[in-house]
Specification:
6 strands; 6-stranded mixed sheet; 2 helices; alpha+beta; single chain
Amino acid sequence: WNGLEMQYQGIKPKIIVEPLMRDFTGKNGEQIQVYCFNGKAKVVIKFWGNNLLSIWDSDFKSIDNYFKFPEKNIKQKSNSIIQLAMELSVQLAENFNFIRVDWYIFKNKLYFEELTLTPYSGFINFSIKHVNFLLGNLINLERT
């Protein structure tokens, strides 16, 4: 077991087959990650492809890149699909202190991908040191 994903330790492995979602050029769909704290969406990341991403806060204000991704952060306006992903994520995150809800966009439709308790296996690198405290302070452990 590498990383900090102990929650999977007791789960019996299974194989799940899903349809391959690529366009005619072989390009994968775009991804959205919604970081939810105490049932509320606080950070939304949209991976546009071509090494570009956008990051917004809960009011869809563009924010600087918190993470050391190889992608370049671009100031981009959100759209209705991104806003829908955020609304649905709040419903899915209702009973969690923290959860990342992942979505996939293919042919302009939104598809649920997964719920993630330990993004990047707990080893994400922040571009700004204080982001550890900023995001950590969003978690209310007394809520459980």
